[in-house]
């Protein structure tokens, strides 16, 4: 007996069913709304139905990065294209691009996967004509008034020669002033020369999530924060005011005087100062079973800073931290390789067994949301003597002059210790977020 693995489909809500049905009658569909609301799964289903019968052979799937595109469209938690076409598809290369080769009722189709978030991303999608373009997190794709270098405009232009052009965009709500709305999504509602549909989804539109699962998910957010309003309520809103509102309002909920006795290991983050900023170090403790993150020690020095002073400060800081905690490594701003090498040499000369790694330096807002999430779950603490970090958390604000979500960094507040704090935990963020909470 041969058994075939099948997808474990759940019930779809009426709104999702209507959106999918309508999309197959349109040539451009946009789904915006809360995370976990089912937008990308809808688009994978729609894309699969289109690919079965469309006349065009080459198609495009994009995300902010290539891994993002493959994860959200190719895999999509078991509901992506590689699963919908299981047994009829294979991963490969097409003109040096990652591609999914799919056997359909109307012949072989090739879906090229690409990242679209960088200024030079457009180069990867030149030279082809695309029938379908499915994009996830379209607001994270690079756009520019110059149509020659804008990923969004280049991708659209590459569909002009298609026999049956077909576009699917999804996004989580962004700043309402983001150009993606005025230039495309909202303008197309009245000006699109074709069949266009837009649908907004909230987390409650996802019928596959139980009430308990939704409540657990919501508990990771600070209520009424920009992240809560966007990710849970699905609202477009401006990131303004304090970045860590909960910490600023209730600092005593997070400041402690005694180090927990279940610290499993510690890490050190390093941010190198330039211009008006300073050199910052943060020692972070992770408790047993990845339950809590504790800022144990911090350091900041502004003003004129010579390499010798930096080396002396760091060796002293490292020796002090390692005398108290099990420090497993240090992670530093990777843009300052010369300074990093200087620190490593200084550690060797002082016989301090500590290795310095390049910080991951992922999206700043992902790091911010990580700490906001920990605070919402009471999983972040800071020692009272870490006055640099406490001050930074209380005073960090959003840059309201930018349509992008940016933490204001103009020298008026200490961003350096926030960077070093984040570098110290980036490697472990996903594991900490996914850790089962023990009550």
Mind sketching the topology for me?
Elements lengths: L13 H10 L4 E6 L5 H15 L4 E6 L2 H10 L5 H4 L4 E6 L2 E8 L2 E9 L16 E5 L14 H7 L8 E6 L7 H13 L4 E6 L9 H8 L7 H6 L13 H5 L5 E2 L6 E9 L7 E9 L5 E9 L5 H18 L2 E6 L4 H13 L6 E3 L5 H13 L3 E4 L3 H9 L20 H10 L3 H6 L5
Parallel strand pairs: 1-7, 1-8, 2-5, 2-6, 6-7, 9-15, 10-13, 12-15, 13-14
Antiparallel strand pairs: 3-4, 4-5, 10-11, 11-12
Helix pairs in contact: 1-2, 10-11, 13-14
Oligomer: single chain
* Largest sheet strand order: 3-4-5-2-6-7-1-8
Query: Overall mean pLDDT score?
Result: 92
| Count of the separate structural domains | 2
Round the Cα radius of gyration to an integer and report it. 24 Å
Q: Given the helix and strand composition, which structural class is it? A: alpha/beta
How many helices? 15
Number of strands: 15
Biggest β-sheet: count, sense, barrel? 8 strands, mixed
Structure description:
With about 450 residues, the chain is α/β, with parallel strands linked by helices. It folds into two domains: about 15-210, Rossmann fold, CATH 3.40.50; about 240-435, Nucleotidyltransferase, domain 5. Helices cover about 35% and strands about 20% of the residues. It has helices spanning about 15-25, 40-55, 65-75, 80-85, 150-155, 180-190, 210-220, 225-230, 245-250, 305-325, 335-350, 365-375, 385-395, 415-425, 430-435; strands at about 30-35, 60-65, 90-95, 95-105, 105-115, 130-135, 165-170, 195-200, 255, 265-270, 280-285, 295-300, 325-330, 355-360, 380-385. The strands form two sheets. An eight-stranded mixed β-sheet has the order 3-4-5-2-6-7-1-8, sandwiched between helices. Strands 9-15-12-11-10-13-14 form a seven-stranded mixed β-sheet. Helix 13 packs across helix 14. It is elongated and about 70 Å long. The model has no long low-confidence stretch (mean pLDDT about 90).
